[in-house]
Amino acid sequence: MTAELITGIAELTTQAAESSHDSHDDNRLADAALVIENGRIAWIGPAADAPAADSEVNVHGRAVLPGWVDTHTHLVFAGDRAAEFEARMAGQRYAAGGIATTVAATRAASEADLVANARRLRREAAASGTTFLETKTGYGLDLATELRGARAAAEVADVVTFLGAHLVPPGIDRRDYLDLVTGPMLQAVAPHVDFIDAFCDTGAFDVDECREVLLAGRAAGLGLRLHGNQLGAGGGVRLAVELGCASVDHCNHLDDADVDALAGSDTVATLLPACDLSTRQPFPPARRLLDAGAHIALASNCNPGTSYTTSMPFCVATAVLQMGLTVREAVWAATRGAARAVGREHGPDAVGSLRIGGRADLQVLDAPSVAHLAYRPGVPLCVATWTEGVRADPHASRDLST
Ligand code: NIG
């Protein structure tokens, strides 16, 4: 058992209090230190009171906070869609049908290639401070490729979601495809996945189809999440609340009833600001959701179609600069709020917060406070991470010694 002391922390964001509210100073300690032992946090307190340890890292006045919890990514794919992106920036609208381009490339790729590409993106995410990550299937859309995708996802991610109901692929009858997704495909992938998801939107699946898919997943023992209200208003959010989904993701087009439904539920609204920029969609009403009392999370939605970034700091900065969140609210939504969206806010395997006995998943910023995440947008501030107590230095040239 070796203990590692991290000291010299100008600002330690713990997210240990029960709310992100700005008045909660319990979530933020000045001049702090912490001790990591066996991958867990063994001690947190003022640097002046820090106990002796086997080794010590002085971060010399930098900020420390939980590693990012990215709960919405689609890392299992092949190819890219740069041409589609460029056309969109020249005025073309995003449509769900673009998914079929990535499906064709993914079906042609080997499982080893899918794992390698997903690992590359996971490494990229880790370099900007992500220490816990969800990813999905959904670019296979036939039994063999969805199964390859589920296995690949399970090798690379901490939480895996089955998204067979991403699009009805070309060449198959709609009813036959739903029977496949809720029958043999679900049975094949179930041992490799934690959640089931469906794309409830214009050009993808309607509310009744999504209900059928999610209920089949629940019967197979999976948790529920939903893509909803991305491209237009509709019943996605209300379906997610009705079924008690852990999360409903996107939420760009919400009416008052949607906001009220979310505010009165445990379902997290997972907002995806990088996707909104890349598809030129209006941002979701983040401020309204929070003021109404809804739970929100922020995620990257890394995928080749609508959001080809792994950068959670970019999402946090955008949420602050464009969506009206305070810095503390955005950081909460990308850490502890996100943990709630995958059912990992509490318990021994909780992530997104720094608590004695909890997982030592943390990051060091090359800045004295988390405000710099939005104050210095686009600057790669993460200089070190610990994931279950294991240190990585994404930018080795910027060490912690001064
Ligand atoms: O979350 N909205 C649905 N699925 C993905 C994008 C899919 C694609 O266009 O490749 C998303 O944005």
TrEMBL record:
Where is Fe(3+) annotated to bind?
72, 74, 227, 301
* Enzymatic reactions: 4-imidazolone-5-propanoate + H2O = N-formimidoyl-L-glutamate
Which protein are we looking at?
Imidazolonepropionase
Organism of provenance: Cryobacterium zongtaii
Is Iron-sulfur included in the keywords of this UniProt record? no
Q: Could you confirm whether the keyword Iron-sulfur appears in this record?
A: no
One GO cellular component term: cytoplasm
Kindly state which keywords UniProt assigns to this record, in alphabetical order. Cytoplasm, Histidine metabolism, Hydrolase, Iron, Metal-binding, Zinc
Q: Which InterPro entries match?
A: Amidohydro_3, HutI, Metal-dep_hydrolase_composite, Metal_Hydrolase
User: Residues that bind N-formimidoyl-L-glutamate, according to the entry?
Assistant: 139, 303, 305
